[in-house]
Predict the 3D structure of the following.
Amino acid sequence: MATLKVENLSKEYANGVKALNNVSLEISNGMFGLLGPNGAGKSSFMRTVATLQDADAGSIFLDDIDVMADPVALRKVLGYLPQEFGVYPRITAEQLLDHVAVLKGIQNKGERKELVHYLLQKVNLYEKRNKSVKGFSGGMKQRVGIAQALIGNPKLIIVDEPTAGLDPGERNRFHNLLAAVGEEVIVILSTHIVDDVRELCVDMAIMNKGQIVYKGTPDAVLEDLKGMVWQKSIKRQELDTYQQNYKVISDKMVAGNPQIHILSEHHPGEGFEQVSPSLEDVFFTKIDEVNA
Ligand code: ADP
């Protein structure tokens, strides 16, 4: 059982943007979802933990590895899958994984071959091992990305916004693969897609404007909002009035008219019906608290 302990991490970019504002998180084995809108600071957090950029203040420990003092020790037990997994032209899946294995210090050729074949099977690309990765679909590239992240028995795997650009079938396969990996190591998954977290993660945090605004299990946070979410279909021109009079957490168009979700401890009145809170309601509620 490994533990990642991040304390009081802060980072301000040269342009004055405070991307990380005193972030503390403790994360153990299994899949952890870091959910937040674009610009929340997720990538800054992930890149800092992955030792790809420095923080201004704070500390990061993976068990007894002091990540900031000894980035090399962290890299030995890290698998990292960036948003855009860069691929060399005309290199086959097998060559690419072999190359990464060399970089990760696996010197024995036979051992490398065995490992690479094992991983290709695990991500269901063994049949395609001699094909150029350049011609792969987005989902297949992501699976190559996962395979390379698994080389060297990582204790920590960091996956940054993985499902952007995947079709539903690919996204599903990618989720299943991640879920299988997640039991053995710490996997941190950053995403702005609520469904990714709901389907995959045992534990989660919501980030906004460089701060952690919620940390806990998806179930616990849903329990917090129980009985407080109400729904109503309204007319488009009424939206402003409702926003002034109620705590509207979301509005979406359904059959041409806005359907609003509001937060209220009591029955808010005519036409509202109580609905079970969704993780999406949680997301908008928590993000609103920071904006307020
Ligand atoms: P997320 O991954 O949640 O979208 P980021 O960590 O990429 O968030 O960005 C957080 C904030 O920091 C944003 O306002 C973004 O514009 C800014 N930012 C990110 N990288 C840099 C950089 N290298 N220089 C200046 N500002 C940056």
In short: The chain is about 35% helix and 30% strand. The pocket of adenosine-5'-diphosphate is lined by residues 13, 15, 17, 19, 36, 38-44 (CB under 6 Å).
